[in-house]
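Dear H.,

Thanks for agreeing to be a second pair of eyes. The structure we're designing against is below in token form, covering all 332 positions.
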């Protein structure tokens, strides 16, 4: 029997990431090749014509899984009964800016949209915040949508996770699909900590540790980390626009694994509300290694954290604490 359609909200749908992600969702990259979807597209009035154009193109593409498109500038209409909300609406940074530099513009959007989601989305709606500063926007969204369960509000660090997989794959000249279990700890910012201490590569002789195969701790502790931390800025420098294709694809990966589950023995990175695991203070949205099953994520427990990692985990937590107070000062 055909499945009922799932309603997916995409905010900022007339923007770069929005334009890239809608066709991915309509092709089944987010929810599976047999899952019909209805797209709810939200943007603001100045982008209303462009949004209309996106809807026209979705119709023209005749996607078999796409059962309807609601394209609107009305946040209430956009949020009505949605099961998944991908929150991309906001302002991107330009060259030379840090992601927190878009804080004052973007956190107020998340405060305003929180209550529309709370009142009008499906009660079990899963929320992914993409717009920067992603962790802090997710925190603000939760704060102003208190009835949405904390575990349903997450932010995107899967792009950083995929970037780390990509860097290891390039360095070892192995296919990226054979590399797994890197971790992004902390903030989606230049203080994030890409950690390969538990990462492995599938080889014909079984799974091997990334650290042993790379055999260059200096590179892993320096250039590898900074390349992943600075990749967003490098893309902006090269394209004069921030990452869009890779952000859209990673957002699909995030939701797909959350809803359909992570493969056995594999974890991914998600920005989630800290429960105090690994000594990370509660009260911030922090990227952890997680596995997902039956639509629920859980933080991977019991990983050994060495002294080098400890300092990095703490530094990015500290930045998130500071961002939190900056966000509140922007809202006052
Ligand atoms: N977490 C992550 O890994 C990544 C996050 N980002 C962030 O995603 C966000 C979007 O990036 P792009 O698509 O490149 O930007 P963009 O400027 O191309 O598109 C953003 C869209 O949001 C719309 N918008 C603005 N205010 C809105 C509101 N109140 N409600 C609904 N829509 C609204 C704009 O009209 C625009 O169409 C930025 O904040 C960017 O920094 C980008 C890449 C990766
Ligand atoms: O760097 C930016 O501003 C966009 C972004 O978040 C990324 O590419 O990771």
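And this is the sequence the design step returned. I haven't edited it by hand at all.
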């Amino acid at each position: 029997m055909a499945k009922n359609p799932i309603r997916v909200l995409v905010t900022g749908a007339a923007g770069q990431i929005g334009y890239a992600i809608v066709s991915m969702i309509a092709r089944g990259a987010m929810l599976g090749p047999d899952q019909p979807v209805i797209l709810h597209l939200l943007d603001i009035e100045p982008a209303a014509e462009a949004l209309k154009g996106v809807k026209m193109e979705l119709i023209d593409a005749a996607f078999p899984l796409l059962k309807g498109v609601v394209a609107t500038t009305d946040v209430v209409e956009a949020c009505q009964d949605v099961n998944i909300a991908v929150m991309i609406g906001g302002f991107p940074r330009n060259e030379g800016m840090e992601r927190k530099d878009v804080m004052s513009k973007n956190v107020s959007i998340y405060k305003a949209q929180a209550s529309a989601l709370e009142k009008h989305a499906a009660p079990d709606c899963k929320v992914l915040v993409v717009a920067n500063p992603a962790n802090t926007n997710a925190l603000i969204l939760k704060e102003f949508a208190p009835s949405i369960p904390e575990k349903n509000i997450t932010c995107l660090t899967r792009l950083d996770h995929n970037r780390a997989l990509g860097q290891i794959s390039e360095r070892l000249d192995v296919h990226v699909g054979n590399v797994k279990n890197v971790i992004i700890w902390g903030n989606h910012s230049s203080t994030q900590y890409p950690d390969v201490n538990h990462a492995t590569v599938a080889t014909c002789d079984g799974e091997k540790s990334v650290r042993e195969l790379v055999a260059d701790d200096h590179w892993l502790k320096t250039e590898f980390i900074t390349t992943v931390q600075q990749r967003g800025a490098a893309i902006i420098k090269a394209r004069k626009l921030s990452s869009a294709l890779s952000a859209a694809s990673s957002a699909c990966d995030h939701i797909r694994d959350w809803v359909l589950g992570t493969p056995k023995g594999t974890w991914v990175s998600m920005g989630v509300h800290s429960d105090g695991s690994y000594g990370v203070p509660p009260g911030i949205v922090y990227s952890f290694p997680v596995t997902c099953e039956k639509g629920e994520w859980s933080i991977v427990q019991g990983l050994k954290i060495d002294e080098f990692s400890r300092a990095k985990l703490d530094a990015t937590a500290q930045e998130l604490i500071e961002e939190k107070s900056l966000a509140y000062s922007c809202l006052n």
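Two observations from my side: Residues 197 and 294 are 28 Å apart (CA to CA). The chain has two domains: 6-155, 157-328.

Warmly,
E.
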